[in-house]
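Q: what does this look like with (1S,3S,4S)-1,3,4-triphospho-MYO-inositol bound?
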Amino acid sequence: DCCPPSPPASPSEKSSDLNVTKITEHGKKVRKNWASSWTVLRGSTLIFAKGQGGGTSWVSDGKLLLVASICAARAHKPRRALFFITCLVRSLSLVLSVQFGGGQSLPEFTVDLRGGSVEWASKDKSSKKHVLEVKTRQGTELLIQSDNDSLINEWHQKLQETISTHAWE
Ligand code: I3S
């Protein structure tokens, strides 16, 4: 009776694997690049993460270079080579523990649904079945797709609800 119950951790409203591609970014058409993505709806934000096991791509997509550069900048004198190595190892182990130990994936990109729209994509947008087209106020257009009919219907409903709930923000 000493402590009030702590509020629940912010629950994700929906998450699943989906196939995703951007078709427009900042108002400009971009080439389709369909990829499977762990998709999480949290509040009015849609988060696309690399799927489970996508960890090694963290190393390959340039962020390792960024960590190495930061470590190098801080270890600017040759005698501080040991500092550089320690910095690199610590940074990498931190990232890998977050990604694998925490059972989470790093966000690849996020979109703000406030002021956006969702509708079933027309046939000229994709030859695939069950494709949703999401447009954001920032000029991003995405296609999201699943072969699972009921799953994509749930997403359609959830995204519509989210967009109308946050319409006036
Ligand atoms: O709308 P598009 O350009 O016909 O989309 C297809 C292409 O992106 C294609 O890639 P390449 O043009 O690089 O070969 C993809 O492989 C297809 O999956 C795209 O079409 P769908 O209809 O699957 O969205």
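The helical segments are 56-60, 63-74, 81-101, 149-165. Residues 53-60 have pLDDT under 50 and may be disordered.
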